[in-house]
Design a protein that fits this description.
mainly alpha; Four Helix Bundle (Hemerythrin (Met), subunit A); two-stranded antiparallel ribbon; 66% helix
């Protein structure tokens, strides 16, 4: 339970940054819908927010952020236009996520109905949002390139393409082709790893503090044991100790019999608590 609370605390710190990025980006998109330069960054923030929320088991926030991520992906890929209705939905959904996070901070559970509400309002927004239809491009007719030419003597001359130069091959070996989707997944994982890194750094600090307390208690415990042992190591056993008959009745006094042992036990208890 304490571990989950620590993870949620780090999630809240990380989420605040992404919420600010999304809010500023949506406001800019509302004022300049033709400027899509920041959509890719907004998509990554929504993707990281979704993954981080799922990591700390805030499934409602994760699903709502997933809806937001899908719309930003469609805008980025040119499948949707960022109309006023869509941007209003993004801002409204962002406010809903902020409200859900505020409830988590107060210790209240998530509201599962938030996902259904966001889905319903999204359908209403998409009714007025124009989908970008791909333009029909007529395929180019294949151009026949003669692979051979006839010389004046009637022989066929084969045209061979020049081989790739050695310099080109050496240059290409320094590059790796990576799909854009894989890079986006890697960026999302970096956000999740940041949360886990901060959590483990905090836990390691707490572990070092506990270690120092244990070592201090160990030193005190060993000192008390040594003092107690040295005090009674060479004492005369009770069986052979001479006792006057007049003092025999005082042997049963609890203070005389258990004073040192009780003090020693109390010190041990104090050290171990």
């Amino acid at each position: 339970m304490a571990q989950d609370e620590s993870l949620i605390r780090f999630f809240l710190e990380e989420a605040e940054e992404h919420l600010n990025v999304l809010e500023q980006g949506f406001l800019r998109l509302e004022q300049h819908p033709e400027d899509l330069s920041q959509v890719d960054e907004l998509f990554r923030s929504a993707h990281t927010l979704k993954g981080s929320a799922a990591l700390v088991k805030l499934n409602t926030i994760s699903e709502v952020a997933h809806l937001m991520e899908d719309q930003l992906e469609a805008v980025r890929d040119g499948k949707l236009r960022p109309t006023k209705a869509l941007v209003d939905w993004l801002l409204h959904t962002l406010d809903a996520i902020k409200g859900a996070i505020s409830e988590v901070v107060k210790g209240n559970p998530e509201n599962p109905g938030l996902v259904e509400e966001a889905s319903r309002s999204l359908k209403e927004a998409l009714k007025t949002t124009e989908e970008v239809k791909p333009e029909k491009v007529e395929p180019e007719r294949p151009r026949v390139v003669p692979s051979a030419e006839v010389s004046e003597e009637g022989y066929i001359e084969e045209k061979r393409s020049p081989g790739r130069r050695k310099e080109d091959i050496e240059t290409l070996t320094h590059f790796v082709r990576v799909h854009v989707a894989n890079i986006e997944k890697m960026m999302a994982l970096v956000g999740e790893l940041t949360i886990l890194k901060n959590y483990f750094l905090s836990e390691s600090t707490e572990a070092n503090r506990i270690k120092d307390e244990i070592e201090y208690a160990q030193r005190r415990l060993l000192k008390e044991i040594e003092d107690f042992s040295s005090r009674y190591a060479y004492s005369i056993p009770e069986k052979i100790k001479y006792v006057d008959e007049l003092l025999a009745e005082f042997q049963d006094l609890e203070f005389d019999r258990y004073e040192d042992i009780n003090l020693f036990a109390r010190k041990i208890q104090e050290i171990t608590d």
